[in-house]
């Protein structure tokens, strides 16, 4: 089972609240889609695109239907580092990477 950093969980919650304010049910839909993305990652850790050639163990996987992706580490265990908007502040999560 994948681990999720507290910061990533907080991002997911904040995004869900944002979408829920705009349209009833969208917040829950986002959470469900993130959970589906994480389930796919657990089943196939290599599914996501590498985040950079410098850190091949850090990958991103798109969340279907939303402009966000799950950023995760494959080593030493699958860890969700961020649930990030794809058009804002790229790389802000870099200080969360496992050592």
List the helices and strands and how they pair.
Blueprint: E1 3-4, H1 6-22, H2 26-43, E2 49-50, E3 58-62, E4 68-73, E5 79-85
Parallel strand pairs: 1-5
Antiparallel strand pairs: 2-3, 3-4, 4-5
Give a short overview.
By secondary structure, the protein is of the alpha+beta class.
What does this structure look like?
The chain has one domain: YaeB-like fold (2-Layer Sandwich), CATH 3.30.2310.20. 35% of the residues lie in helices and 22% in strands. The protein contains two helices and five strands, in the order βααββββ. Strand 4 (68-73) and strand 5 form a beta hairpin. Helix 1 packs antiparallel against helix 2. It is globular and about 40 Å long.
Q: What's the CATH topology label?
A: YaeB-like fold
Name the poorly predicted regions.
none
Classified by CATH, the class is Alpha Beta
Shape: globular
The percent range for helix content is 25-40%
Helix/strand-derived class?
alpha+beta
CATH homologous superfamily assignment: RelE-like
- Residue share in β-strands: 15-25%
Q: Helical stretch count?
A: 2
Largest sheet: 5 strands, mixed
Count of DSSP E strands?
5
Radius of gyration: 13 Å
Number of domains: 1
Look at the structure and give the mean pLDDT.
91
**Helix-strand pattern, N to C?**
EHHEEEE
Q: What is the terminal-to-terminal distance?
A: 20 Å
Give the second-level CATH assignment, the architecture: 2-Layer Sandwich
